[in-house]
Amino acid sequence: MATATQAHIRVGTLEELKARGCTVVTGGGHTIAVFAHDGKVYAVDNRCPHMGFPLDRGTVKDGILTCHWHHARFDLSSGGTFDPFADDVRSFPVSVSDGEVWVNPSPPESDPIGRWSKRLEDALEDNIRLVIAKSALGLDAARADYRVPLGIGARFGTTYSAAGWGQAMTMLTCSASMLPYLEVEDRPLAMYQGLLHVARDNAGMPPRFLLDPLPTGETRPEVFKLWFRNFIDVRDSDGAERCLRTAIEIGIPEQTVADMIFAAITDHIYVDGGHTLDFANKAFELLDHLGWEHAGQILTSLVQGMAGVRRSEELSSWRNPIDISSMVWRAREALGAAYAEGASRRGDWDDEDALAGIILEDDPAATLDAMVEAVRRGASEAQLGSAVAYAAFMRMARFHTSNEFNDWDTLHNTLTAANALHQALKRAPSLELLRATLDTAMSVYLDRFLNMPAQRTPAPLANGAVDGEALRSRLLDGMNVQQQVEPSAKVVSDYISGGATPEGIIASLGHAMLREESGFHMFQIVDAAIKQHEERRGTNAGRIVLVALSRFLAAHAPTSRAVQQTFNIALRLHRGEALYDERG
Ligand code: FES
Questions:
Q1: pLDDT at 23 over 90
Q2: What's the CA gap between 415 and 115, in Å, rounded?
Q3: Residue in 56, 57, 64, 69 to alter for ligand 1 test, most ligand atoms within 8 A of Cβ
């Protein structure tokens, strides 16, 4: 016992403890409530895991400890809770030797990653945001790879979603992708927010069961591609899912599977306003994080959405007053010959600014002609996608705040669709997918009235150098006030053109998003802007991309920030800080 007592805390005599019922000791970084109850001794963390109320002020009856603040109940012997909203309270080993009570404040923990993973799984099922936040922090503190919480969230989100892949899975993937661009302390917050939305959308939903692969001897990729496109065309989601599952199981390569999915999505014009392609691209990005071995589970979650959604040729806005839809079909036909002609020069083209300028003008026929001509002159799939994405960011940078507030979202939809298409074109370039650049350019055209009048973008500083840290603070302070759209754009513009390294302002823009009640659109635009800026680092176009992002974020800030408040409670509990104010 002599060795043990060096690390243990002396509580007092057993008789004293019995007389008092409970006493509080400190050690090992913990404040511990030690109870004598029903002939036994128990020790638990004195801070209620819910909001930190002192548990020595709770009530013990029949082996159950009840916190007096929100009445969470705990099994005194294990710390396990009967009220999942509160989470389990940590218990500590106790011993009695020669009439003296001792508590061990630092028992070895064998598998913290396993313990936090299990808590995260439970919290997702019950949609308990405080425990989701604690789990994200616990896994981060235990140095778990980011793919541990990501994988748990992905498995949950693609299983308990009858409708398949949706906004929440997109947000979770955006969270994972933006982690390297965030400050270290914001990374658990990003993961928490992504997981939180997966829980909100899917908790309590029935599981989705995968269809078995076909027992077929067919192995030709072109046959699976044909089958899959035909099934999606006639909205047969079961046929398409079984076809896709089989293609993955028999080992058809990743790029070929991507080509199959992207071709089926682009067989119709601008399906679901670009969301379907965005979701598919995000599912592949999730597989980049987690590994291709998860393809069967993740990619089949796309199929129901692909088969059921609206096709833009069915929309009046694509038919009247100008029949954009017919123009796109004709341009798609012309694209084949231009693609063949441009094959020997593919990638040599270098005229993105000029093409983006034409896309932003008011002539859809001229735009489609210019795009087909660019392909003929050697523009690659990714280059054409990049030009459309840049035009969409320019629309956002020039959006005038005299428009309806909801019109920010109109531009946002085109912008994220254009970014998704660009990323997909880099992943699996093909003539079929290239067709979608024409559709997406027409969406940029349809948004033209939101640049009338056009907001002037801030001019770059003529000569640097700026105090980057001061500008980062000014940006975040500014977004504490509503509608600081132009001041925020100016700060970002000055920061970039003043020579400060982009990483700092990107981390601040990420923080500005994460501290708010950020929904689907906010996650999407931060993710898209990071990717589009990476394409244009050190250029004026890169500056415009971040200006556009800052304007959108500033227009939507501040919010109630309740999500961050929950995270901060979890963070303070994690750090052992007092949450309950004794002064009331
Ligand atoms: S139940 Fe204990 S602080 Fe809320």
A1: yes
A2: 41
A3: 69
